[in-house]
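#data-curation
PF: Archiving a pair of folding outputs for the training set. Convention for this channel: one message per protein, sequence first, structure tokens after, nothing in between. First:
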Amino acid sequence: MTSSGIKKALGIVWFRHDLRLADNAALAAAAKAGVAVIPVFIDQDGHTSARRLGGASRWWRGRSLLALDETLRAIGCRLIVRQGAPDEALDSLLTETGATAIYCNLRRDGMANDTATIMRLRARSVAVETFDANYLHDPLHVRTATGGGFKVFTPFWNRLRSMYQPPSELPAPKRLNAPGSWPKSVPLDSLQVADHWTHPLAQSWHPGEAGARARLAYFADEIAGDYQTQRDRPGRGGTSRLSPHLAWGEISVHEIWRQLVHKVGDQALPFLRELGWRDFNMHLLHDFPNLSWQPMQAKFAAFPSREDKTVLRAWQRAQTGYPIVDAGMRQLWQTGWMHNRVRMIVGSFLVKDLLIPWQRGEEWFWDTLVDADPAQNGGNWQWIAGCGADAAPFFRVFNPVLQGEKFDPKGGYVREWLPELARLPDGVIHQPWKATAAQQADAGVKLGETYPLPVVDHAKARQAALAAYQQIGTAAQATPSQPTTPMRKNG
């Protein structure tokens, strides 16, 4: 440490998916070291071979970076943004500023690239301090008795719970030492996404650390105690809606765990289990980097799916004729988010009723979800398709009518997102083709005009799906395929 009156050492805090001040191990370490802090975010979208962000994620990222810069300025600092490959951007910053240390929280997607960058920096005598701050536990430490990765959730969860203790809270710094001069930065305005599609996103969400903490407080105080009974009802607002805040690290998973255990005790366990699923998918991605496009079970490469742009577009545009499916897809398009139960329903419908490859669904969700995350998106799509981990019974086909009647019995969710069906009676809201002519007339519904007829007969589609699963051999042993170089276009 330099003595008083001499220029302080400079350290770069490299932000990625950890856009927060509180419970940020890398930032806390830099503040404790007493160095002058240069907070940096590197926009590598389109500048490397890494998959490009989807549109909804780009919108969220832009807003979240604005919020981060605002909170940094409040404690005497600011956010520096660079564009390009991380290696080149960091080299340039080190040369320009004379910084001798880099602090960062590890990413678990793209870990190989991070490791190479860190080793190269250390080889040129840059002190690099790394921290695990965005998941419950390092995947290298939660392994089976034979040292492999878990492929079934329950034993994974049991092992994780036996090992996990939330770390002590790291308060947000009240002040950061600033450098004598600031390096150049890309204007944050250039990273903003604003058009007719993103306008409703702004009405639905408040990106940034303050929004995340407010959402957690509301969930802990008003919802978490009843989460187990309300979580599957899409019309009741019984979920946390924390997923996009977690995806960008605006709040730490440890803080969520601590607050929920403190406020609701054992009633928090059903939601904590969902945090466990988040870790489980991340661990799958660690062991199987091609999770987003290649089936984990090799036999599923032969699944007889079809590429049909017409029915795919009907699914994307909420025109399948099945109200619970269309309501979910419209909620996704208008808000960048979809209720978890409905995600399972629309996923099953795409893959098993329409026999469209699950990768097309993964790609659509990647582009339209504000909480798009490579581990969660890939892991969950593989689960619903039956080709991933813990997917038994992988041949289960959700009935969209029965699912709607069970989880949206009064049709409130459908009516909210499909107002063209709002005046149909409860008994036919999930199958409008069974409404009488008088009921349709009273509701102002003209099937095939104001609302589409079903694109497929579910009963027949279910039989076709079961035959497809039989074709690949339901008795075949599930064997993970070997990762290969991705062949499809990113984004």
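PF: Second:
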Amino acid sequence: MSIRIVHCILEPRYSGAEVLVLGLVHAQISAGVITAVIALRPSEQLFEPELETLAALGCRIYVPTKRLVHQERIFWIRRATRAFRPDVLFAHSALPSVYSRVALIGVPGVSIITVLHTDEDFDNRRLRLYEKLMWRRNAIVVGVSPASLRNYRRLITEKQETQLIANGVNIKGIRAAIPHRDEVRNSVFRAAPDEVILLQVGRVTPQKQQRLSVEALAALKNRISIDKVRLFFAGVVERSDYYEEVVALARVLGVEDRIQFLGSRQDVPLLLAGADAHLMPSGWEAQGIAALEALASGIYCIFTPLDAFFPFREMPGVHILPENSKGTQFAASLEAAIRTAATASRYMREMEQFDFERCANEYLRLAEMMALRTSQKQ
């Protein structure tokens, strides 16, 4: 079946949902699908070459030159969809979903699929109210974890058709970076062979709890020497006020010289290859791409006790923090890992269920099913 698929995102950038969309578009183009990407914000500069590559492959790109607000977003999506004429629109996360459904009122023949990328997509009261009024505009709701769908049914409705599609990553590509460990440690981390490099990948925002990692590093200083321990944060600064707060805290706690912000990165597999432990103390997640990339790389991983991370708890080299952990408990886990040389190992984990090819195939099959259903109604 020949179909046209468009993905609507908030902003082209190196972040979990957008990285997943990038992979889906590549896979759909390879499968002969005509594709497009609509964004509501200008692209992050580092991400622009990715859009250029997609355009060269035939993907239609609808990215504004300025940040759109309110009705501008509705008009932008409406114009883009009328120009592209998709059969299926994947709206990734709550805001793109809200604006897409309003924009396509009166536009026939488009199946709107909302994709929930976190467990908190409708935590905002106004978004929740809108969803309760407009949920019937969804053809189906996709969740990347059971918790995301469970929360949707609890907060919005049990009547909406839903489907679970777990995230996927390029496992072979991630593991291909491992032999470049020494190169990355020299060129990026500038680390001595006996240094312990802690890495946290994710947007700099309260959700990702970089503050807790800084508190843990400061508490670790009271347990062992951290002269050969450094903490790196890789990810776009989404909240500048929170970034300043984390930097100020590091200064007050006396560990400012032991942390570094790398900003948005396109080479996460290489960073993981060069690091010794990956920290993911998120306050909430559905199923983070960063978590899957870290697990695939074989690096030692520390997670908070979220539903999204429980499937990983039996994997080798994975530590789940206690509930409501403070910096001191986090530090105790880091100390144990460093003292037992857990951070010096690479762990082979069964990751086939999180392979990207499986994920891409499920999205394509769903799009074909929704497009067929819509055509039969017309």
